[in-house]
Design brief:
single chain, 118 residues
Length: 118
């Protein structure tokens, strides 16, 4: 069964629930954070700490995806997952920090490893 098989009223209800439970609370906290951080210095200790924690969480998620993948990415060999991250980071370094190009490079490596790496 897909989302569109639910019918128009049920599909709209499901969309409403997703917006109210998933999107709205996240946006509320983001707006409150923007208001709270408005008067803080960008180099203050609290904001440096927040950036460090955010970076650590992101690194942990990437490490989990590489070392203990689930779902479709588990079919990609370990060398392909590591290579995708490394080439993405190298691309980010040498393309004047173009995130779009770096992500596309990493995705291309993952797709090639998943297709030809078996």
């Amino acid at each position: 069964m897909t989302f569109t098989d639910l019918g128009p009223v049920t599909a709209l209800t499901a969309l409403f629930v997703v917006l109210c439970i998933g999107w709205l609370p996240t946006e509320l906290w983001r707006m409150l954070a923007v208001l709270a951080a408005r008067g803080l210095d960008e180099n203050s200790e609290i904001l440096v700490w927040v950036r460090l924690v955010a970076s650590a969480l992101l690194a942990a998620v990437v490490a989990k995806i590489i070392l203990a993948p689930t779902g479709a990415i588990a079919a990609i060999p370990l060398w392909g997952r590591i290579g995708g991250v490394l080439l993405g980071l190298l691309t980010l370094r040498y393309t004047r920090k173009s995130i779009v190009v770096a992500v596309l490079t990493g995705e291309t490596v993952l797709l090639l490893a998943g297709t030809f790496g078996r």
